[in-house]
């Protein structure tokens, strides 16, 4: 690792040897430099210490570092997949305080997301991702979009989840399409964005991503027709040449091995040359395969257009002729663009001029150079329109309904500051945009902060920050500036040489400290001292580029095309706006004026948002991992004004909230401590007081503010228990209209707020639980009552049924018993009568005493029951058995000697009962001849059997 740092000790990195010692020294300190998450903690904050800290972190594979309000992102130049895992995104999203986690672009992403949620003005957020070409801006923007796709998609229903997923996928799919058509391989970056873009991620009330909109800036369209020797055209041209199928090649006239002059370095294969990915993404964005094929056919046509070359004409009156090998190209071009071949060639060769009152048309053959310019212009015109159309298609696919989103997070990915050996209008525009953004940054964090301190009555030691207003005045100021002078040249349409333009600029703007001139330069040029360093711009071709003239014949020609795509790109009803009219007084729309207008529009949007800054730094220009070139990084740190930011952010009050918002958000902290201000507590003091004057409002807010601020020491104490050093009163200052505080104070306040909210939530939960419990209790009691009523009703009904049934059975039983008794007595009577007839000494002839007659009656009536009980009384033996029988037969117990109970076998039960003295009835255990003796009214397991074995025998009295 250190070896690599030392590896640059020779040449430009002359500090290599010292660095090694310094690095070791730092690593030996209590807090090693690579562990310092925030550059504001480096002591003292100087360029050198900041640089060393960044270096130590880079070498320790730590690529993100805070610098106060800015995040510094070092390009790892190697894949670090674990840094961008969805799990990590979720971790930052779920963290109670993401700023406590390691610095990351996800911290910025989460911060913006929470700001949107908090609804503190300005609610809309923007993230300005800046840095040199190849520093990692596009990578960062892409990763942030993926982050939002993960965190801003937690819809409740499955259906809305699917919709959100589709939208996110479309938004992510816009990246490969835009990169294929707008990125190219340059000397500094294999995948360099050749346009600026502002992506607006639209969120609904629930902070879910419902759509997006893309605004592009200044596409480098000259690249279609002109590429530097080691650079390439836009990726899409290589993709179609390498990825087309055999049939497509035939269709698009792109034979294998064909050479195109606008397709330099085709042998270099990049990972960006993935045609299938682009096609797939286009399909997802709603660009169907026929339309895609149409697009690729037109692009193939442009490649053939590049091969159209003209020979110089010796006769000015004659148009330049085509080179031999170019004739075929024109034919192919005409067929691919569905244009008539002859008018196409004629438009490239001959210029038409309208002059005079009648607008007479003159035809003038162009020189070879002019023919080439017209050819290039045709390619640029088609490509620029195609790019704009694609952006509009992407927007229509990803943009949400205007009423479906309420807030947005803007991602600005603009080309970084550029300084090449040969700089022209493109670099001037790019650096102008960077100056504007730097000014926005300076205004937001440096100047605005300091001026605000003064206005609010804060004492503050000013840092000599770098203000680039003078540079901006030089570029865009009024009435005279570089832009106005170049525009004037275009408007006057007078022939002017590069040298003349240089002189005009130098003389008109001589007083500007930001204008320099290198007298040694032979080429006409001027130098602008930008905030990031001086840049030399060559004046040759500047005016022409600014005019970006589009010959009206070209537009008219393209309007004649039968190609469906070109018909859309060049509608016939469109009035050729490029057509200059001699009477027209409208200002000429130059490249610079169009760019300036779109830049102002962008800054207007940015001014309405809370900005966040990510500064991408390229550790080396070779794109090598683990190589940190001090001087290259140093120039980038200086260029982005990072050190001043660090000073201000570390020592100042980076958080500023208006009194109103402060009271609204933290008013509930007054619950923690008894407050002194009179009047009832209202978290929103504005309610019902909208008609109050600002002064009266302020007077009302003051006591509330003081109450809140009084809670701070206790909150700080609570936040750091047992550490009196840290429990110092939080750093907060109450200005005239705003409250100023540090990050740590904000943290303390937020923690207190969360505590109060938790208490409130507990209170609400308690109340709710009590209410719910009471309600449940009431419901339970009601249920018990209902159940008891139903049960008692059911029981009553059941008993009633049983009762009825019992009555029926009882009656039946009684009937049956009577009947049995009757039958039995009748039978006995019959038998008796028979015997009486047979034996003269019948019972009637010997009247029995009354007691005996009663006994006999009882025996006759109850003998079955007596037998049953005697047999059923299990285990009843001897005398007890007799007692039972006596009881059942109601025999007089006083004279047991008058009768006897006999059992034949002890186990078999009662066999007979005999009345001894009378001895007239004898029970035998024999089969009864009686017809009804074996009828049992209730046959059951308990019923007594054996009746049918009873035989009544009648003997003579006194003889057994
Ligand atoms: N975080 C990262 N992890 C891994 N590689 C990265 C990372 N950031 C950037 N790179 C590498 O650096 C290259 C350049 O990054 P990128 O295209 O984002 O730069 P840029 O600032 O957008 O450049 P330009 O202004 O030219 O478009 C990427 O192609 C990628 O290989």
TrEMBL record:
<keyword id="KW-0963">Cytoplasm</keyword>
<keyword id="KW-0505">Motor protein</keyword>
<dbReference type="GO" id="GO:0051654">
    <property type="term" value="P:establishment of mitochondrion localization"/>
</dbReference>
<keyword id="KW-0496">Mitochondrion</keyword>
<feature type="domain" description="Myosin motor">
    <location>
        <begin position="34"/>
        <end position="754"/>
    </location>
</feature>
<keyword id="KW-0518">Myosin</keyword>
<keyword id="KW-0677">Repeat</keyword>
<comment type="similarity">
    <text>Belongs to the TRAFAC class myosin-kinesin ATPase superfamily. Myosin family.</text>
</comment>
<keyword id="KW-1000">Mitochondrion outer membrane</keyword>
<feature type="binding site">
    <location>
        <begin position="131"/>
        <end position="138"/>
    </location>
    <ligand>
        <name>ATP</name>
    </ligand>
</feature>
<dbReference type="InterPro" id="IPR000048">
    <property type="entry name" value="IQ_motif_EF-hand-BS"/>
</dbReference>
<keyword id="KW-0067">ATP-binding</keyword>
<dbReference type="Pfam" id="PF00063">
    <property type="entry name" value="Myosin_head"/>
</dbReference>
<comment type="function">
    <text>Actin-based motor molecule with ATPase activity that localizes to the mitochondrion outer membrane. Motor protein that moves towards the plus-end of actin filaments. Required for mitochondrial inheritance during mitosis. May be involved in mitochondrial transport or positioning.</text>
</comment>
<keyword id="KW-0206">Cytoskeleton</keyword>
<dbReference type="GO" id="GO:0005741">
    <property type="term" value="C:mitochondrial outer membrane"/>
</dbReference>
<keyword id="KW-0472">Membrane</keyword>
<dbReference type="GO" id="GO:0005524">
    <property type="term" value="F:ATP binding"/>
</dbReference>
<keyword id="KW-0009">Actin-binding</keyword>
<dbReference type="GO" id="GO:0016887">
    <property type="term" value="F:ATP hydrolysis activity"/>
</dbReference>
<dbReference type="InterPro" id="IPR036035">
    <property type="entry name" value="MYSc_Myo19"/>
</dbReference>
<comment type="subunit">
    <text>Myosin is a hexamer of 2 heavy chains and 4 light chains: interacts with myosin light chains MYL9 and MYL12B.</text>
</comment>
<dbReference type="InterPro" id="IPR001609">
    <property type="entry name" value="Myosin_head_motor_dom-like"/>
</dbReference>
<dbReference type="GO" id="GO:0007015">
    <property type="term" value="P:actin filament organization"/>
</dbReference>
<dbReference type="GO" id="GO:0000146">
    <property type="term" value="F:microfilament motor activity"/>
</dbReference>
<dbReference type="InterPro" id="IPR036961">
    <property type="entry name" value="Kinesin_motor_dom_sf"/>
</dbReference>
<dbReference type="GO" id="GO:0051015">
    <property type="term" value="F:actin filament binding"/>
</dbReference>
<dbReference type="Pfam" id="PF00612">
    <property type="entry name" value="IQ"/>
</dbReference>
<dbReference type="InterPro" id="IPR027417">
    <property type="entry name" value="P-loop_NTPase"/>
</dbReference>
<protein>
    <recommendedName>
        <fullName>Unconventional myosin-XIX</fullName>
    </recommendedName>
</protein>
<keyword id="KW-0547">Nucleotide-binding</keyword>
<dbReference type="GO" id="GO:0016459">
    <property type="term" value="C:myosin complex"/>
</dbReference>
<feature type="region of interest" description="Actin-binding">
    <location>
        <begin position="599"/>
        <end position="621"/>
    </location>
</feature>
